Amino acid sequence: MAVLLKVEGLKKYFEIRKSMFSRPIYVKAVNDVSFEIQKGSIFAVVGESGSGKSTLGRTVIKLIEPTSGKILYDGRDITQIEKKDFLEFRRRMQIVQQDPYNSLHPRKLVKDIVGEGLKIHFKMRSDEIYVRIKEILELVGMREEHMFRYPHEFSGGQRQRIAIARALVLRPEFLVLDEPTSALDVSVQARVLALLKELREKFGLTYMFITHNLAVVDHMATHVVVMYLGKIMEMGSKQDIFERASHPYTKALLDSIPSFGTGRRIRSIPRGEIPNPANPPSGCVFHTRCTQAVEMCKVEEPKLVEVSPGHFCRCHFCA
Ligand SMILES: Nc1ncnc2c1ncn2[C@@H]1O[C@H](COP(=O)(O)OP(=O)(O)OP(=O)(O)O)[C@@H](O)[C@H]1O
């Protein structure tokens, strides 16, 4: 399969200062991450809160600038593209955010929310824009009359459908879905996930699907990357991760899996909380919580090695 997005050595560090006079500290939210996303796949990014998933999703589509590294979209390094040439890539790569209550402008009509990007990206007449908005709303299960209402008049699930319509109206190829259903009721979640699957098949879309919920990953993903403190711990096909997990962190996450649709977040896996990302542990970043850690893990950082074709693991004991 063709590669749509290739990321090489991607880093995103955030500078934080306790006061104006103190020295800066860096949160390495994404720390030297490399992977490929094949066209048409659903590439799930999982990990606990603070592992860098959202930062990764926002950085690969350049909503935030990377600190360093390459992002090759359809073969072009978009980190090196001038602003005016980037507009076309912006159209091709869209994002649907977690919270449908805050991501839609409260004082704009649905038609203006969904149609906003059309004015920027396409030179269309207003009657053409109207038809396009109507079509896209129907596609996500909404009706023409909804165009003239405000976001607060809709339920969470309907709002997320509007957010999906806003992303799709630009005919993108790649969608970053950042926890798209975690703010929704269980029954609504399943319907939105089914819609996302259907849209992917209809339009040949590629998804980066960010979630805490491994049951959702099992239901949706074709490929999975497991992140911890800004690093990839394990990566492979869905089968590699769910049937042949190699990393102790992945195994612990799988043990904490909720049944599908409960929406429960991964909060506590064995042995305590995630360390402070501004001061990560030495050696293997997971060693402080790992049941298999030995002395070497405290000092030597394991490399991400390919344990079988396409299946990568970062642990001294990965088989
Ligand atoms: N703008 C920012 N400034 C400083 N630190 C940030 C910023 N954005 C994110 N971070 C930090 O980067 C780390 C990774 O955050 P990120 O939101 O990407 O993780 P996440 O895995 O998506 O977690 P969650 O699921 O809770 O959103 C966290 O320690 C977070 O506090």
Summarize the structure.
Belongs to the ABC transporter superfamily. The protein is of the alpha/beta class and 319 residues long.
Name some characteristics of this structure.
319 residues, alpha/beta, eight-stranded mixed beta sheet, four-stranded antiparallel beta sheet, 10 helices, 12 strands, globular, binds adenosine-5'-triphosphate, AAA+_ATPase, transport, ABC_transp_ATP-bind, ATP-binding cassette domain-containing protein, ATP hydrolysis activity
Bound molecules: adenosine-5'-triphosphate
Low-pLDDT runs of 5+ residues are none
Question: How many individual β-strands?
Answer: 12
**Total helix count?**
10
Radius of gyration from CA coordinates: 20 Å
Strand order of the biggest β-sheet: 6-7-8-3-9-10-12-11
Q: What string, H for helix and E for strand, traces the elements in order?
A: EEEHEEHEHHHEHEHEEHHHEE
Protein name: ATP-binding cassette domain-containing protein
Pfam families: ABC_tran, oligo_HPY
Keywords: ATP-binding, Nucleotide-binding, Transport
InterPro entries: AAA+_ATPase (IPR003593), ABC_transp_ATP-bind (IPR050319), ABC_transporter-like_ATP-bd (IPR003439), ABC_transporter-like_CS (IPR017871), Oligopep_ABC_C (IPR013563), P-loop_NTPase (IPR027417)
Describe the structure in your own words.
By secondary structure, the protein is α/β, with parallel strands linked by helices. It is built from ten helices and twelve strands. The chain has helices at residues 53-60, 83-92, 110-121, 126-139, 156-168, 186-203, 214-220, 238-243, 248-255, 295-299, and strands at residues 3-16, 25-38, 42-46, 68-73, 76-77, 93-96, 174-178, 206-211, 223-228, 231-237, 305-308, 311-313. The strands form two sheets. It has an eight-stranded mixed beta sheet with strand order 6-7-8-3-9-10-12-11, sandwiched between helices. Helix 3 (110-121) crosses helix 4 (126-139). It binds adenosine-5'-triphosphate (ATP). Residues 14, 16, 27, 29, 47, 49-55, 277 line the site of adenosine-5'-triphosphate.
